[in-house]
Amino acid sequence: MKGHETKMARMEDILNLPVQDPPFTEFSAAHITWVKVEGGRQGGDDIALIPFSRVDDFVKGESSNEECPASFRIESRRKRSEGSITKPRVDGYLEYTLYWCSYGPEDYRDCESGLGDGSNFKPSTGKGSRPGRRHMMRGCLCHFTVKRLYTRPLLALIIYNQRKHVDKTGAPCHGILDQDAVGTRAMYAPRISEELRQKVMSMLYVGISMDNIIQHHVEVVQGHGGPHNRDDFLTRNDVRNMERVIRNTSHELHIDDACSVKIWVQRHQKHVFYFQDASASEPFILGIQTDWQLQQMLRYGHNGSVASHSTFGSKKLKYPLSTLLVFDSSRNAIPVAWVITSTLAGQDIHKWVGSLAERIRTKDSRWRLNAFLVDDPSFGFPVIRDAFQCRVLLCVWHVRRAWIRNLLKKCCNVDVQQEMFKHLGWIVYSSRSVPNTMHAVEEFMEVFVDQSAFMDYFKSHWSPYIESWLSCIRSLPVAGPEPHAAIESYHRRLKYKLFNDQHASFWPRIDWLIHTLTTEFHSLYWLDQYTAETGYLSNLRDESFSTNAWYHALHIPDVDVILDEQNLHLAKVISQTDRNLAYTIWNPGSEFSLCDCRWSSLGNLCKHVIKVAMVCKNRQVARPLLAAQIYRQTLLSLLHNPPDDPVVLDHAILCATRLQQDIKGWEDLSSSGLLQQLPPEINSQIADSSLLLARPH
């Protein structure tokens, strides 16, 4: 374990040390420049400052030492409350944690042979031997202390008291450097890793038997040439212990739901990125993100997009659930964070979105998001832009799904369904060009006044909110239909898992929702990703949710799309299973297209609609993107009526330049399927406008 060291420093100078934040997901002592302390209680020890939020990453990195694999346990911990000390020392702490290698400090190597004298070293806390772990104790003295500084709570002072994995004689006591450990488990870490524990627990939660887990593990170990670390020695007893944990775990940690939630939060602090308990003036807010979800957000969100799935279960659950999703390489939506709040998630997003963004950047400062897709007009768009420094797009999947499913339910005539859905789409599109869009809404209600069942639904559910939706459409670019399918697939899976009638008695409890999400539901997505990456356990995947219409649309050849560019009322897609069958798509290229296939007739977005939208986009025969329409209108208005004030004119030129850069960014999003391609005249008009505005008048 060779880290960099510099000259000795006095403890009084520790706040002048640089804060080190290595650009790795996990890091060890070898990645840090250490300073020797001169004098004081820590005289001669190595010290360094790191962000407190990265302490767990350091502990994991230290446990992965190739020469001496280890597992550091918390030997002792102390905490202080803020304001409890009037004159804190420079190294005074809010939290003090002592980590010790699990192969020590006691030494029972000789005791098991009956040769020990019972005088082995005991830890400073006074703890004796730990039941069931005598075989692990080999006298290792490697340990370090972490102090969360009282005067600077965002920083952690690491004091490495003994960096080598040696016993009291100074000899290596485990790992490959210990000759006595060669050929035994002492060559490896004393416990299975958190990654393997997560894997086995997930397999148990999705219903895989212990025999199948062990058989799969043996295949994996044989596949990489035999045992290389502690994880490769997984035993039936390990799996049985985890089975016992699951069996004895209940969502109800307290008879009172609010108390139960608080207990869960205290026990799972590393999975909570924001918590605010309900009070007379403040709503309940709980933001959850597991380590695995964080990894997926880092992996698929970087230079990608995050989409919101908000206000789920507002009629059945005690508090609605909102989810943040990323899209993997197969265009499937993966939940990377859950937010449970007693109000609409968008109303309080300013409270938790900053904490989530900071959590991500703490792990990887280079992480960048291209776009954030919102599905609720109440979201604070400026707050999202500030937190993630990205574009914000409006995703109308919720509107489309609600309208089409109620049309199919409340209107029996197929031709009328098509016309009504097309007209609803026209209302959305006209929000860009019609001064008073509510006139278009009133016209729609007059034309189809005989469809009383749907009109009653539309008036009661959408009249109070339609203006806010249309106002949002006027101000934000709108995402294309491709991500709708992935979000819909997640929505169906969540509904299938939570709203089983056998769980109805638990719906009013928040602790049940938290437990189900973080165990069984979380494990379903872990299995999907594990199977996709390794090819193992593919027979256990639920194929009805493992892929979606967006993914299937990518596998339909362009030649199987029959599109008359002179008459865009209809399009046809040849079936991939029956070449004699062709599906008809009405109003092609729009977010409000309809298909006559069975999947679409159930109110879902089908692969045929998405494929036709892709072809229309590539051939640039669909109507311009909603966002492009409003930008063109704004720029042309600015061009025809240039301001006289030179300061205002300079500002207008700057805005035009920024718009041109935004359009370029949208082209990048379009290539990933998130936006429709922009007609070429949009870019040219913006460029011309910038030049014309720059000329002297």
UniProtKB/TrEMBL annotation:
For this protein, the record's InterPro entries field holds:
Znf_SWIM (IPR007527)
Q: Which GO terms describe its molecular function?
A: zinc ion binding
User: Start and end of every SWIM-type domain?
Assistant: 583-617
Q: Which UniProt keywords apply?
A: Metal-binding, Zinc, Zinc-finger
- Which Pfam families does its entry note? SWIM (PF04434)
Tell me the superkingdom of the source: Eukaryota
Q: What is this protein called?
A: SWIM-type domain-containing protein
Q: What organism is this sequence from? A: Hibiscus trionum
